[in-house]
Records
---
Amino acid sequence: MSTDLEQFYEIFFEESSELLAEMEACLLGLDVNSPDLEDLNAIFRAAHSIKGGAGTFGFTDMTEMTHMLETLLDKLRKGELQVRSEMVDAFLKAGDVIKDQLAGHRGDGGADPAVAAEICEELKKFTEEISMSGEDVPSSEPVIEEAAQKEEQVVAQEETSSATDVAAQTVFHIEFSKEEMSAASLENLFSNLNEQGALEDQTVPSEDNICKLKLTSASSEEDIWEMLAFIVDPANLKIETEVAASAEMNAPADVDEETVESVEEDASVKSHQEAELGYGFFPGSPAAPNDAEDEASVPTPSSQQNDNANKKDTVPNAKSSGNAKSTASGETSSIRVSIEKVDQMINLVGELVITQAMLAQTASQVDPVIYEKLHSGMGQLERNTRDLQESVMSIRMMPISFVFSRYPRVVRDLASKLNKHVELKTVGEGTELDKGLIEKIADPLTHLVRNSLDHGVEIPEKRIAAGKPAQGTITLSAFHQGGSIVIEVSDDGAGLNREKILEKATERGISVNEGMSDQEVWMLIFEAGFSTAELVTDVSGRGVGMDVVKRNIQGMGGRIEIESAYGVGTRISIRLPLTLAILDGLSVAVGDQMFIVPLTYIMESLQPVAEDIKTVSGHGRVVKVRGEYLPIIALHEIFNLCPNVTEIHKGILVILETDGHKAAMFVDDLVGQHQVVIKSLESNYRRVKGVSGATIMGDGKVALILDAAMLVMSSQQESA
Amino acid sequence: MAKTILAVDDSASIRQMVSFTLKGAGYEVIEAVDGQDALEKANQHNVNLVLTDINMPRMDGLKLLELLRNLANYKNVPILMLTTESDSAMKAKGKEAGATGWLVKPFDPNRLLEVIKKVIG
């Protein structure tokens, strides 16, 4: 019978990830010269919260690292230590390690313990600087402080006692049970203690279960206690202190030493009995249990038992797991729902939309005068379905700040590596897009940002020579435009060099000509095997990457565009559909088949005159549209269909455009514009060339969604 | 009638664990994400016990303690603070601010119930 703490793991993981991201953002925004106390507090709190959770749920590796962080941050926020940029670096690295540890617990990779130890050591060094620099550690006599809360009389003593030399050596008698402890953790413990001072093993051979140690150290009892509590079950741990001779010597002579000592000892023993329990009450405080003191200092058998079970097994009463299934509180303003549930809901709504369309089609065939009520009902159903669909889709929407927030770190790390000064600006972080797109856009965007930094922004000397500020700017912006979302990466760097690109492209065997528009030239950098960097750096530009970026964007149903001016800067725009689940399309008919063409690719539709259609030997047919000759894609030929019309001037041409290439698609007829629910053809059937998916139309028939980009590209290859 | 506990912690996972444990033992639980939130909720509900973290954004646990003790109907409501083992100075501050007792973090569900039972049964 145990409460499964595992059920809280997932929420802890998510929460920690959020806290880590927050911590990182604060760290990156931190002005090292005059740190904002609020920021330091926020960073401290993040570390503190992660530590609390990690401790509760038993992730000790994370506890250790966050503890180190917390200790150092606490000193920083109290102004006992000055923030330095090396510290910020160490904090960031520590954050990375914690992230890895978190991933490890999630069953996905993990942290290298050696790296973790190294960073712990680094943090420790910073923390210790303060003690070495002679500034006072708040109190190395915790015994006295702890006693202060319980025994009023000790408070009086404290003033005199605290005058005791800070470096006083204290003798600790440590006792704990070795049972259930591995040799490795024992060894670890011994070496930790050895670092603190002189260690003497006083274990009695006859009872070798009980480990007895004598430690003489300047460390505070709390430090020792804490160090041990990481390794030894606190329930089985006992520490007693004895002020060493040196401390007594340093104590003011007019204080009755014996009294001080006995009071201290008494209090410390008691406080640790309470610490064993893990809680306590302040006598005389409001609503404290009457027996507070007794119970707290004399553990009852039942509490003792619980203590032993502590941390490894958790034993709640049987009811607790049965009763409260729901853990989400009605008081909180958001709930966490698994993505599967949301997707299932979106799917169901999709089905509903289809059913509604079918009903509407059937209803349209009956006499609206006789069935007036049916008609008004259908109208309402349509509106409600549309609203429902919109609100369900919005559940999957996330602000793009989820992606943008990772770039300050990327830019910071990279800029310092390349010795460039770069400021990252983000605009429109609140713009929302589908979660699926958020996940997929991160990698290509990272590549573009790195590319801007590496190839776009110049080194400070060059910038100054060009009359620009030494610090370059990279701007990430996101906004809605029409039915799509646009994400832009722009820099005020060197801009693209037309000549250089053309030269390089020729070198790489990519076909070019002088008559190409700038737009077409810029697109060359997305060709496979193209790289304009003079030196291949480990940052970007191995000749792979930009073409992958383009492919990824296209895979999401998006488009990529470049604008650039030499010496002024470059702007790369990514245009994505708002969601992956629904598509605005034009339905076209070929024979008895229906196809959907994504609206984003369509420029216009027209009925050509016979004279404009020419046959080019070996290259198929072309059509002249406003002085431009476009290849004709005959849909019935590609899919082997029997069309109603075969003469082009009797049918319709739909002009498609992608990546600056155009083509005219020949179809029988235009049927109408629809919002269609995309169904994957791959998961239901198999991949078909020229088709990106399928949908179910109002009449129940399946219509294929055309992969317009692919059709245009293949027509280009044929005519080239 | 079930007794109501106001659980204040900025960490959602801890909050959820506390809430789950207490609800399982038959208590009503009101969650609050920080001192400010807790103060508002304390005013809206009748609470039999307050369990609060110390380090929180907006308003920390100590300030919350102080402000709650200034409210007439919270003069005698037990308030337990969650604190880390080493925070002996914090315990002193907590006592001064009017805390009833403390519970060391990290804690397991049993210990939590044990303490709560001792205070409000």
---
Amino acid sequence: MKTKNASARRENDGYLFIIPAFIYMLVVLGYPLVYNLILSFKNVDVKNLTKGGSVFIGFENYINLFHDSTFLLVLRNTFIFTIACLVFQFTIGFAFAMFFNQKFKLSGPIRGMILVSYMMPMSVTGLLGKNIFSNAGLINDLLGKIGIQGPEWLVTGSTALIAVVIMNCWVGIPFNMLLLMSGLTSISQDVYESASIDGANWGQKFLHITLPLMRGSIMAVLMLGFIYTFRAFDLMYIMTAGGPLNATDVLGTYSYVRSFTQFKFSEGAAVAMVLFACLFIIGLFYLRMLAKEDD
Amino acid sequence: MFKTKEGRKELVNSIVAIIIAIIFLFPIYWLVQISFKSDSETFGKILTYFPHEFTVDPWLVNLTDKTFLLSLRNSFINGFLTMGIALILGVPAAYGMGRFKVRGSHVFLLTFLVAQMLPASLTLTPMYLIFNKLHILGTHFTAPIAIAAASIPFAVVTLRPYFKSVPKALDEAARLDGCGALKSFLYVMIPAVKTGIITIVVISFLNGWNDLVYSMTFNVNAEMRPLTANIYKFQNAYGTKWNCIMAYGTILVIPVVLLFIFLQKYIVGGLVAGAVKD
């Protein structure tokens, strides 16, 4: 009896430590989340914000969005941007992870150094991108040295999107490398050794040992990568401001412009809900995977 | 030395690694070197790869500007306030979840995991409207309050495994000595997970320091904005004076690099733990 009371008391002590943070999350994230949903069904803008008189208009904001060609372009951009980034940052990140997973003296220090691009402010990355992709910037100068006349990167829509993808990969590669390396180090070297004895070559080992054993890490890194890339904002905001002509506009920047440049708060909220819906689907898969790992 | 097969492999790997580092870090070198160029070199017809007319003027232009110095101060305020909130709320929550058999603990964990994934765009507009109603827009607190909503989940997810791995005997001994839960948390558990705490300190500071979207939305006044949020203002002021813009950017990167040099292992360990769970 006594022990039961003690353990119950212990459990209650646990709540005391968790509840403050939990309440904070509910107030600072949960409440705005619900607020945002409600907002997206109303017609709040800068006029009726102060005077009042906003009303519920049902799905009108959403219906308008899907009839708005700019929004559809932005939606498409967001997917193209995300998938392009995922493909390159994952492939290169994986190659880096395998390379730095080898034991040599410089492996640790250099692996650490290249993480700086992941940790520095994205707004500075945007500044850098704006500079090196300018017409007489570093990229075109280097291209010129090998006899190629570089394009006006940030003036043309398609090349601007490529430039933004490249800058984002510069940030994403170290992140992918880091997470994939932690997966690689968990594979025992014995498995590779016995495969070598059986006469397996490098490609066979990669296909039949590395990939299957890394499945969990690979899925995690791709899903997290999707979640972090799909919600991009800072890079485009500083580097291209979504331009030229919305060519690099993504859901994050488009929602911001609706809310805080045009002050159509409800329309911005609706765009944000679409962004959330896309993340939610991927997020569910990710959480299900984590739950499976826990069992 | 490099006659053996192993030795040759070490040499080849080292060379490849150095090439990767040079290519990968070149943009950062580019940022810094432009910041030491004179105006005439910046506007020159030929693109130079290192400053031929070395000068610190672009730095002085920034460092003697009143708005710049205020923004720098605001960046530090952003970093430290975010760190403070993340530590005060996140560390106890991680302890509660790592050490106690709490009913519904998976609901809590799920909440924190989901919170980590939410995009700023989603809560930005409502927060702006709420802060507007409360008349606290344009104060130092608004941005850190919002940023910490991402730092707290990071702290919980990262630190929980650390707390879990502390031997049971340690806090049981503390309890036998008559320590309450709070005392044993403060004096026994926190020192035991020091490494994890340093990770939270660094990452939550950087969350605040790196923030752009909350800071520029909640603060209209340039003198209340951190450096990140004033980039456009200074870009407009400097025009195409890239040397001044890059000095501005370099100053923004310095704390990140310093933290990296001194606390690298904590950052790396934390990033992995925070993203992959235990």
